[in-house]
From TrEMBL:
UniProtKB keywords: NAD, NADP, Nucleotide-binding, Oxidoreductase
Protein name: Glutamate dehydrogenase
Residues the record marks as site: Important for catalysis: 154
GO biological process: glutamate biosynthetic process
Complex formation: Homohexamer.
Record-listed NAD(+) binding positions: 197, 231
Keyword presence, NAD: yes
SUPFAM superfamilies the UniProt entry points to: Aminoacid dehydrogenase-like, N-terminal domain, NAD(P)-binding Rossmann-fold domains
Length: 457
């Protein structure tokens, strides 16, 4: 990779995977997998295009659009679209690379990809966003299809944008097919899809808690810190509350709210915050609201981790690298026993090192870390279930989808756990490394498929 421009986010994701593979017995048992890693680290295809659209003043605007079709060994490319001013090729390659192995862990037949544009929806009117979506899909539609590449939503791409993108795809291709997931429930979408990542995250952590406690504990009575306030954070908070936990924080790009009462954040509070997000407003609104200003402490320009007090569980659910080395130590000092990423690569490499070193030193008393490629796989899992429903022209009930999601998250946890035990033998009393186990399990499945298809020898 030395002859390439610096791609810090992708390089971080690559190094995180490589470090766990090299510190396991995988390459000793399968030395040929080193070649598979070299091949898999290069996308099969990178598509970059301009998006020309017209604002409400009639002025022409232009943005950069991307689709990284990273790996199709296990199935058609699958991964979200992100509309955000920070979007660049490095971020999309990192997200696509992670997506390959996350999708592998679901057990579904889907490959990995990612896409988006450096378009900022904030400050834009609905008509401007709609026109941008139409212009974006005018080009993207040439490269995707229900059996080729099936994008979904991500930051800046909600079900509303998915609808506009789907309409533009249908107009361009004359095809009604399951080319996008996250669609509306009345026209091909799956029930539980908006909730899936947050619910799946909590289901995964529930297995961590039960394993660590020998089946004696659940979420009941746990204090949970959550970052973010989008779909993942909202539904993770709601499911944790439903299971008996007290949620003490949420956040956005401007700051953090910390609940000051014993009951923490309630479902009604989450509903109010969800409405703020739909209106594209910030959590600062709570600090000036008569109803909420005495219920929450608002901390401007801060993430929650240093301010939540004593907690049991931390769920970073906002964006990449949202837990630093210093914040990782703060979570340990706060008594946190479990941390699982609802966001992609939510913890910096330095933070992961803090958690993993603590796991080795403190054994059963340590914090236990779960990476996003396993813990937040619920979203893409239900996207895969949406694809299956589209292919069969049927719709499953909420209970059917939720039960399948629970089964997939349990399998993700057990796969990572068992693989860690096989390739990274833990010391006596030490929790297995879920980051190592998940990386090895996902990579091995993809490498074997690539080898069977002649992608490396």
């Amino acid at each position: 990779m030395s002859n390439l421009p610096s791609e810090p986010e992708f390089e971080q994701a690559y190094k995180e995977l490589v470090s766990t593979l090299e510190n396991s017995s995988l390459f000793k048992k399968n030395p040929e997998y080193k070649k598979a890693l070299q091949v898999a680290s290069i996308p099969e295809r990178v598509i970059q295009f301009r998006v020309v659209w017209e604002d409400d003043k009639g002025e022409v605007q232009v943005n950069r659009g991307y689709r990284v079709q990273f790996n199709s060994a296990l199935g058609p490319y699958k991964g979200g679209l992100r509309f955000h001013p920070t979007v660049n090729l490095s971020i999309l390659k990192f997200l696509g690379f992670e997506q390959i192995f996350k999708n592998a862990l679901t057990g579904l037949n889907i490959g990995g990809g990612k896409g988006g544009a450096d378009f900022d929806p904030k400050g834009k009117t609905d008509n401007e966003i709609r026109r941008f979506c139409v212009a974006f899909m005018r080009e993207l539609s040439k490269h995707i299809g229900a059996n080729t590449d099936i994008p979904a939503g991500d930051i800046g791409v909600s079900p509303r944008e998915i609808g506009w993108l789907f309409g533009a795809y249908k107009a361009n291709t004359k095809l009604w097919e399951g080319v996008l997931t996250g669609k509306g429930g009345t026209w091909g979408g799956s029930l539980i899809r908006p909730e899936a990542t947050g619910y799946g995250l909590v289901y995964y952590v529930q297995h961590m808690i039960q394993y660590a406690s020998g089946g004696k504990e659940t979420f009941k009575g746990k204090r949970v810190a959550v970052s973010g306030s989008g779909n993942v954070a909202q539904y993770a908070a709601l499911k944790a509350i439903e299971l008996g936990a007290t949620v003490v924080s949420l956040s956005d790009s401007k700051g953090t709210i910390i609940a000051t009462g014993e009951n923490g954040i309630t479902p009604e509070d989450v509903a109010y915050i969800a409405d703020l997000k739909v209106k594209r407003k910030q959590l600062t609104e709570l600090s000036s609201s008569e109803q909420y200003k005495n219920k929450f402490k608002y901390i401007e320009g801060a993430r929650p981790w240093k301010h939540v007090g004593k907690i049991d569980v931390a769920l970073p659910s906002a964006t990449q690298n949202e837990v630093s080395e210093e914040e990782a130590q703060a979570l340990i000092d706060a008594g946190a026993k479990f941390i699982a990423e609802g966001s992609n690569m939510g913890c910096s490499q330095e933070a992961i090192a803090v958690f993993e070193n603590h796991r080795k030193e403190k054994k059963g008393e340590a914090i236990w870390y779960a990476p996003g490629k396993a813990a937040n796989a619920g979203g893409v899992a239900v996207s895969g279930l949406e694809m299956a429903q589209n292919s069969q022209r049927i719709s499953w009930t909420s209970e059917e989808v939720d039960n399948k999601l629970k089964g997939i998250m349990e399998a993700c946890f057990k796969n990572g756990l068992d693989t860690a035990k096989e390739y990274v033998e833990p010391a006596e009393g030490e929790f297995p490394s879920l980051v190592a186990g998940s990386n090895i399990a996902g990579f091995s499945k993809v490498a074997a498929a690539m080898h069977a298809q002649g992608d490396w020898w």
